[in-house]
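From the shared-data thread, chain only:
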Amino acid sequence: MSGDGPLSGIKVLDLTSVVFGPLCTQVLGDQGADVIKIEGPEGDTTRYTGPARSPGMAALFLGLNRNKRSLVLDLKHEAAKAALWRLIEGADVIVHSIRPQAVARLGFSPDAVRACNPRIVYVALTGYGTGGPYAGQPAYDDVIQGQSGIAALMSQIAGEPRYAPMIMGDKTCGLVASQAITAALFARERTGKGQYVEVPMLETMAAFVLAEHMFGHTFDPPKGAIGYNRVLAPWRKPYETSDGHIAMLVYTDAQWKRFWTLVGREELGADPRFSTMSARADNIAEVYRIAGECMLARSTDEWLAVLSKAEIPCAHVRSLEQLLADEHLAAVDFFQRRCHPSEGKIVMPGPPTHFADTPAAITRLQPRLGEHSIAILYEAGMSHAEIDRLVAAKATIDGSKPNPH
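Structure, as C-alpha cells:
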C-alpha cells in the first residue's frame, strides 16, 4: 500500500541500514513510494538502539522507518538472491549502503542489476566516491564529521574538536540522496532509462560545509581567509538577556539601524565600521560583542515584543523538551500521534514538506522484522512451495504476527 503522494506507484528496494539510507527512503515513503526494506535475519541495528516496548522495535528504528514494508532475505542463500532478482525485475529504484566490494561479491553490481532492469535507478550510498584513495573504506557519521571539517569548526566554540550533537552527516546525506533519486526518476521520464547514482558521504558533507566556508578561497589566488567569519565569530551565539537567552539575527542595513535605535545606540548606525553590510562583515565580532552587551538590559519576553514589532527576526531558545510543546508546531499538526499495532501509542514528526495536490503522509507504521516477507514474495511471483523452502532454510522469516522474536 502506498499513499497518493507525488511518488505514488514508485517501488523502491531499500537495502540500507542505520541512519543515512533509512532516512533517505523514509522521505521517499512519506511521498508515496512503496518502500520495501530488505533486512538480514538479525534486522537493522537501529531496531535495538534506544528505549523499546518490544524487541526489535526501538526508538531510533521507529524514527527512521515509517512508510516501509519489511522483507527478510538472508543473501548468503542463493534462493534469497534469486528472490531479490525477482523483485529487481519490477522495481523502479534499488538503494543500498553496502560497501562496493561486498555488493560485487553478492552479485548485485550496478552493471548486473541494470542489465536485468534497464529502467531501474541504482543508488549506492557510500562513504567515499569511486576513484579516490578512500574508496571502499567504511565510514560512519563521526568519522565523516571529522574528515569534512565539522569537528574542527566546533573547536572554535568548544575549545577542542567536537562532533555536532546530532547525526548530521548521515541525515544531511540522506536528504541529498532522496533528492538525487527523484532527479534520476525525473530523467528517466524523459529518456526511458535508469542510471547509476552514487552519493558519497565525504564529498556531500565537504560540499555542505564549504558552501559558505570557502569564503576568501573562492578566488584563485585567495582574497582572504577560508571560513565565513560571521558564523565563526565567538559572539555568534544565543544572546543572554536579563532572565535567560534569545535567538536573534539582525542582518540587513535597515534592521541594524532599527536595532541600534531600540538599544539607545543610534550613533552606531552611522559608525563607518557598522553602517554597511560589507563593513559589518569586516568587524562582525565587535558588532556581536556590542549587541550582546545591549541585550542584557531587558528580559527575554520584553525583547521578543520589541524586536518583533521592529521586524527583527528573533525567537525563544528551545530545549528539546520545549520543542515538543512548541505552539507553532502544534498548530500545524507537526507531531503525529498513532497507535501502532504492536507498540501502542507512539509520537513522531510528520512529513515537513507540503504538496497541495499530492500530499505526503504517514500511510504505514513502522514494520516489525519480516512483517511483510510472505506478502512481498507472493507479489514477486513466487509460489507457496518456493516461499516455504525459503522459510525452512531460514533465508526469510514470516514476521506477520506481532512480536515474532
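The first strand starts at residue 11 and ends at 15.
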